[in-house]
Amino acid sequence: MMSRILTYTSPAIGHLFPMTPILLELTRRDHQVEVRTLPDQVEPLRGLGLAAKPIDERIAAIEHRDFGAKNTLAALSASVDVFVRRAAVDAGDLATAIASTSPDAVIVDFNSWGARAAAQAWGGPWAAFCPYTPPVTSRGAPPFGPGLPPLAGPLGRLRDSLLRPLFMGQLEKRFLPGINGILTANGVPGVTSADGFFRSAPLTLVATSEPFEYPHPDWAPDIRLIGALPWEPPAEVPAWLQEPGDPFILVTTSSEYQADEALARAAVKGLAGEPYRVVITMPARFADLGPLPANVRVERFVPHGPILARSAVAVTHGGMGATQKALSAGIPCVVVPFGRDQLEVAARVKHANAGVRLPKGKLTPERLRHAVRHAATMSDGARRIAAGYRAAGGAAAGAEAIEELITQQRQHPEPEGAPRGYEQP
């Protein structure tokens, strides 16, 4: 049965692109999908057959400044501030979109906090989409933020029980007042924990899976891991990419600026003369890297997929999209995390034996060169992760979960005034 599905994204292509294959799959299944997203992505989405309109321009104007933070907690706090400030705008933006489209279901970007509140207040079936590991408590997994490896047994449980309040407890002190103000303004009950907010959606689709992700058996059934979704918009393959030669190394920086030019500069010097063709992409802010060696080229943006198909290693800033795109192709990674969720991404790459974690504070051209040489020997781990992504079902699994959500709501509508949302005990 055809449904009208309204989708709302944050102002980040790193969130829109992984969500797109699910929307295309829903369209293929004869659902009517409308997307509210970045203004410059409206026409490309229309070209794919999706109805699309821009989000309020004020949202993207509230930019991240976390790259100036002195530590992980300060950086996460800076991100919280951005999401709360955006929430004051995106809540009304989604509410207006719901009123004008009368959807059967709504899909909301995990980082659009006000839109989450508006979807909850609406009362119909809605889901959150998260392109990275959500900061939700899980037994047996380390607390989110510092990039700690899992530690089994009594010692691990003790470590996690001591550190979780240190990280999430401090973050909640900054988080809860702002988000409860947004929830209350939208007629939704406040929450007492980050988990209470992040698990408020009846369904959350997360674009990752084991063995990259740690096991989370206590996340079911509302949080579902569907595997990586390494989608890119159609684009012409550059002629230079099709020329014969050495394997490539793809070096990525963030699509949302975070002062990560140091990674590009280290790659220029450290990989000069290595038996690879090095492609550095700098989509957020193109920097002058000085004279380039013969084997290095710098692009503002070029589709990653065709490069990865010819690559031996990917060097990433730890962004979930770029890192999982490489791993989906069975390409091992060197991850140099600069903040946000990137410490967690780097920890997972190392734990899965699919690459090397190189801390930002230890980044030098020489260390990067040695890390690349080591990572080139770790393709077995990357291929195991790629197989896990395929097994999780991808876009088809996501579309089926949305259809199940709509069907359940039609068969068992909640009585008017029934409480919605989830508060984890």
List the helices and strands and how they pair.
Elements: E1 4-8, H1 13-28, E2 32-37, H2 42-47, E3 51-54, H3 57-60, H4 72-101, E4 105-109, H5 113-122, E5 126-130, H6 153-185, H7 194-198, E6 203-206, E7 223-225, E8 248-252, H8 261-270, E9 277-281, E10 296-299, H9 304-308, E11 311-316, H10 320-328, E12 333-335, H11 342-351, E13 355-357, H12 365-375, H13 379-392, H14 394-411
Parallel strand pairs: 1-2, 1-4, 2-3, 4-5, 5-6, 6-7, 8-9, 8-11, 9-10, 11-12, 12-13
What's a concise summary of this model?
The chain has 425 residues and is of the alpha/beta class.
Q: Keyphrases for this structure?
A:
425 residues; alpha/beta; 2 domains; seven-stranded parallel beta sheet; 14 helices; 13 strands; 14% strand; disordered C terminus
Describe this structure in words.
The protein has 425 residues and is of the alpha/beta class. It folds into two domains: 4-227 and 393-411, Glycogen Phosphorylase B (Rossmann fold, 3-Layer(aba) Sandwich), CATH 3.40.50.2000; 239-388, 3-Layer(aba) Sandwich (Rossmann fold). It is built from 14 helices and 13 strands. It has helices at residues 13-28, 42-47, 57-60, 72-101, 113-122, 153-185, 194-198, 261-270, 304-308, 320-328, 342-351, 365-375, 379-392, 394-411, and strands at residues 4-8, 32-37, 51-54, 105-109, 126-130, 203-206, 223-225, 248-252, 277-281, 296-299, 311-316, 333-335, 355-357. Strands 3-2-1-4-5-6-7 form a seven-stranded parallel beta sheet, sandwiched between helices. Strands 10-9-8-11-12-13 form a six-stranded parallel beta sheet, with helices on both faces. Helix 8 links the parallel strand 8 (248-252) and strand 9 (277-281). 48% of the residues are buried.
